[in-house]
Design the sequence.
């Protein structure tokens, strides 16, 4: 226990240790600004937590505890024993991200909870209160009656004081849980099983986000609603054998977090989860490169190339050189190549254990291509699709990553597409997969590789500890707009993503499709508006680079579709790593306008997007330094633009601006605006 405590308390200033308060019935913890209060209390020998903000309840007393395999539940017959308090105020830097510096100012309360009767087990509930929310976790010390254990259920509940409006996607604990569904909204009392982050909006405007932080060796949490109840129960993804978490004391769980904001605009930048992860473990981060990249990728999704061998094989040496040349000529930092390795030719979702991560197809000269990339100063991003055959990947991790390092590769993209209950029958968001992803991130760090994960484990802030964890999917991305049928993303999609999934961390959405009127396979006939195709205008594709943060941002279209396109200049110019981020305007599901300052440069970008409705919104550029002249390079929806029948109309203009300028941002249906602000010369 001392080991865990000293870890958790490192860099904190202990203020008070009150021992022998065995009869205390509740403990109160306040945020530094005094607005948020968390109460840990004992009611009828059961432990509860509750949160209020400005005196009004947000979470009413909600239960805590566990059930174990082969041991009594830890829920009743409890007593509050020792407690300790501390505070911290420190600032840390992010080598890459939506902000450069994070201030972690919090108060902490630790309470020891003991069973009054046999088996006399104990644990600590540790809570931290920040100005932007709270987090708490369980710490289970080593003890004679609790050593090796299996958690069957975590009993943590979130009983919302108000039947808030939830923005949700379903969670499915037993089948591949890629979190790639379309978002819905509705009251908490109507929710079934949903994913986190779960964004909740109260009638008075309060925004609350339930999520988790520092998921290291535990099962991912979803939230189970109950009909006509405002209570959500933590529900853990499972191992094949039915248990949720296997562990040995001393043990700490992830943090359960509740982010709080007065307005949608104040939810971002969200760094609550980062504050609850351990500091950076990579001493020298200079090799970790934020970058824009292109790739042999979209062609497979729109059926002009194949992953597998054959006449349309995308990952040939010649094609890869073309993409590398284009990247080098246009200031992109990397080129992703998918389908380079053997294993794609059968039904790979069923035969994914035949993937090799070191052997290339004969028409792909991996060492030659890697040398060419080095010579061009472009990172080769090596793709590793596992088909969720995780053991096959694990067996090859060391040799594959060693090879990539030898070849000078600096980033990989992993993938976990699977169609059945995989991997090995364990849940996609379960402890088995959490452990696997950690192994991948840490092995990659030791080999100088950044990681972009698709079908990932959810983001719980690992990037603070492992900044080589660059970005991930974990939501419905652009690829859905490629697949034909009716499954594309609706125009509102990204205006929801920003206030939900993106609160957990960067997303590899893959923006930048210029050929928006995709033709039907094998024809020259453009798809109709009801068929899948990006339901955005060209200006909105550009704005997504600013709105949907990722330190690796793809120029996703086929490179030939960028030839001769004036709008491509914005992709060349836009930054991917930021000093600061400010949300100028936002309504979930309607529109968002974000301003971000380029890392280390006197330059800002503004991204504005709308849903299917045309909107004009005025914003003040008061984030610019006062009295200095800037030039706004504006990429706006052109006359008559609309995602439906005129998505390509783009108007590019320049205008002088300064901190006092009020800018009218006009957006077409499904449109947006992308702006670069640079000092006037
Ligand atoms: C799904 C990923 O999201 C996509 O980017 C990738 O191309 C395919 N799987 C194949 O691995």
Sequence:
């Amino acid at each position: 226990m001392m080991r865990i405590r000293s870890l958790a308390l490192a860099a904190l200033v202990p203020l008070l240790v009150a021992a022998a308060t065995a009869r205390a019935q509740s403990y109160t913890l306040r945020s530094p600004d005094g607005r948020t209060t968390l109460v840990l209390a004992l009611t009828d020998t059961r432990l509860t937590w509750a949160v209020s903000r400005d005196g009004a309840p947000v979470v009413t007393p909600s239960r805590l505890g566990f059930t174990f395999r082969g041991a009594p539940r830890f829920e009743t017959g409890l007593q509050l024993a020792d407690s300790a308090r501390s505070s911290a105020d420190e600032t840390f830097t992010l080598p890459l991200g939506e902000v450069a510096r994070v201030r972690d100012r919090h108060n902490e309360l630790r309470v020891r909870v003991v069973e009054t009767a046999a088996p006399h087990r104990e644990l600590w509930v540790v809570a931290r209160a920040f100005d932007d929310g709270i987090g708490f976790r369980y710490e289970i010390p080593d003890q004679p009656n609790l050593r090796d254990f299996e958690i069957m259920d975590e009993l943590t509940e979130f009983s919302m004081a108000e039947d808030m409006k939830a923005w949700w996607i379903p969670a499915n604990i037993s089948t591949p849980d890629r979190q790639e569904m379309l978002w819905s909204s509705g009251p908490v009392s109507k929710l079934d099983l949903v994913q986190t982050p779960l964004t909740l909006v109260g009638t008075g405007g309060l925004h609350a986000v339930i999520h988790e932080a520092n998921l290291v060796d535990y099962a991912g949490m979803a939230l189970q609603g109950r009909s006509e109840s405002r209570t959500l129960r933590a529900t853990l993804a499972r191992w094949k054998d039915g248990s949720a978490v296997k562990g040995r004391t001393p043990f700490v769980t992830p943090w359960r977090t509740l982010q709080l904001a007065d307005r949608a605009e104040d939810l971002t930048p969200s760094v609550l989860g980062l504050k609850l992860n351990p500091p950076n473990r990579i001493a020298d981060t200079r090799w970790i490169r934020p970058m824009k990249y292109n790739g042999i990728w979209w062609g497979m999704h729109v059926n002009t190339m194949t992953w597998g061998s054959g006449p349309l094989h995308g990952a040939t040496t010649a094609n890869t050189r073309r993409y590398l040349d284009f990247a080098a000529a246009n200031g992109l930092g990397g080129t992703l190549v998918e389908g380079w390795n053997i294993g794609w030719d059968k039904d790979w979702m069923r035969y994914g254990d035949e993937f090799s991560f070191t052997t290339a197809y004969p028409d792909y000269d991996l060492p030659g291509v890697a040398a060419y990339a080095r010579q061009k100063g472009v990172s080769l991003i090596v793709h590793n699709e596992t088909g969720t055959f995780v053991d096959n990947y694990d067996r090859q991790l060391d040799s594959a990553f060693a090879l990539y390092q030898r070849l000078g590769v600096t980033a990989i993209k992993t993938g976990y597409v699977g169609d059945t209950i995989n991997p090995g029958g364990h849940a996609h968001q379960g402890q088995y997969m959490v452990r696997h992803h950690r192994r991948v991130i840490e092995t990659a760090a030791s080999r100088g590789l950044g990681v972009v994960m698709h079908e990932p484990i959810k983001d719980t802030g690992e990037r603070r500890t492992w900044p080589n964890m660059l970005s991930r999917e974990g939501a419905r991305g652009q690829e859905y707009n490629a697949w034909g049928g009716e499954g594309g993303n609706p125009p509102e999609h990204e205006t929801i993503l920003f206030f939900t999934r993106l609160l957990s961390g960067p997303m590899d959405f893959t923006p930048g499709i210029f050929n928006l009127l995709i033709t039907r396979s094998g024809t020259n006939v453009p798809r109709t508006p009801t068929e899948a195709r990006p339901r955005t205008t060209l200006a909105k594709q550009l704005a997504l680079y600013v709105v949907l943060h990722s330190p690796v941002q793809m120029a996703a279209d086929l490179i030939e579709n960028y030839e001769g396109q004036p709008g491509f200049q914005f992709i060349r110019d836009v930054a991917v790593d930021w000093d600061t981020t400010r949300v100028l305007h936002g309504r979930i599901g309607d529109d968002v306008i974000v301003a971000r300052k380029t890392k280390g440069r006197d330059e800002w970008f503004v991204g504005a997007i709308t849903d299917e409705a045309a909107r004009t919104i005025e914003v003040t550029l008061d984030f610019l330094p006062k009295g200095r002249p800037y030039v706004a390079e504006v990429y706006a929806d052109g006359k008559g633009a609309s995602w439906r029948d005129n998505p390509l109309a783009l108007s590019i203009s320049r205008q002088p601006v300064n901190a006092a300028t009020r800018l009218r941002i006009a957006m077409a249906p499904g449109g947006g605006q992308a702006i670069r602000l640079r000092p006037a010369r």
Observations:
- The longest strand covers residues 78-93.
- Confidence is low (pLDDT under 50) at residues 1-22.
- The radius of gyration is 25 Å.
- Residues 297, 338, 385, 415, 417, 454, 473, 479 surround 1-deoxynojirimycin (CB under 6 Å).
